[in-house]
Amino acid sequence: MSYSAKHIVAVCLCMALAFVLIACEPPKPQMVKTVNIPDGEIDPAVWGKAFPEQHELWKKTADPVSARRSRYKIG
Question: How many separate domains does the chain show?
Fold first, then answer.
C-alpha cells in the first residue's frame, strides 16, 4: 500500500468508528406527565389519560375478530 492509501484507509476507519459511536448512543429520556387517579377509580377514560397506549389497545378488544384471523376464537 502506498503512503496515501494508508491515510485514506485510516481516515475511513476513523469516520466509521465515529459514526458507530454517535449512532449507538442511547435515546434521550422524555418527560412523562403524571396523572392522579383516585383510589377505587374504575372508569376506563380516567385510566386512559394516564396510560393512553394501553387504553387504545384495550378499546380494540371490543372489536370483533373474524374467524379466519383468530385460531382461538370461533366467530
Answer: 1
